[in-house]
Amino acid sequence: MKQLAALALSVCALALAGCDSPSIAFQGVPAQSVTVGPSTFSVRVRGDRAEAMRVSRERWPAKPDILARGEEAIRRASGCGIAKNGLSGDQAIVRARLDCG
After folding, report:
1. Domain range enclosing 51
2. Residue 1 lies in a domain
3. Does 91 reside within a domain?
4. pLDDT tens-place string over residues 28-39
5. Which pairing describes strands 49-54 and 81-89: parallel, antiparallel, or unpaired?
6. Rounded to two decimals, what is the model's pTM?
7. Helix (H), strand (E) at residue 11
8. Domain total for the chain?
């Protein structure tokens, strides 16, 4: 029974990993698909904030590589730079505070 429950959780986790559901702050904001290198992101921009969700499958992507690609995806989608110390995230979601000035 425990093995079945573990299998069910694993299947659910894999299914959710491919989702393109924005955080609450970006609900209702249309996404732009941006590909940078081997990574494809679903980018949403609202005001001076942006969120890039990686939707491509990559085997063991390094966090610094994904942050750099996510930053570039946000720049392309928003047309803005990133504010000083305004980038954060992980291998799944990159968030940025924009500097459009």
Report:
1. 29-99
2. no
3. yes
4. 999 999 999 999
5. unpaired
6. 0.79
7. helix 2-17
8. 1
